[in-house]
């Protein structure tokens, strides 16, 4: 029973993370960028910046001020958002 509860909680977290990404996606699209959810593991979210956001000099600020803040607001159980290259 515990495993089912854990799976349900994980699915709820992933749903909230995806909603957070959808809410910031229009801002990234304005600059020719996008974002992809790679994985959610425990309290960490792994994302990949795409398009013009990939390798952009301000991508660190975008991650910290935009992406990470929004995800943590919508999914407070998340403690860290990490960018995956490639």
UniProtKB/TrEMBL annotation:
Transmembrane intervals: none
What InterPro entries does UniProt report for this protein, alphabetically?
FSCA_dom_sf, NIF_FeS_clus_asmbl_NifU_C
Q: Give GO terms: molecular function aspect only.
A: iron ion binding; iron-sulfur cluster binding
Q: Which domain of life is it from?
A: Bacteria
* A Pfam family hit: NifU
One GO term (biological process): iron-sulfur cluster assembly
* Recorded family membership: Belongs to the NifU family.
Matching PANTHER family:
IRON-SULFUR CLUSTER SCAFFOLD PROTEIN NFU-RELATED, NIFU-LIKE PROTEIN 3, CHLOROPLASTIC
Q: What's the protein here called?
A: NifU family protein
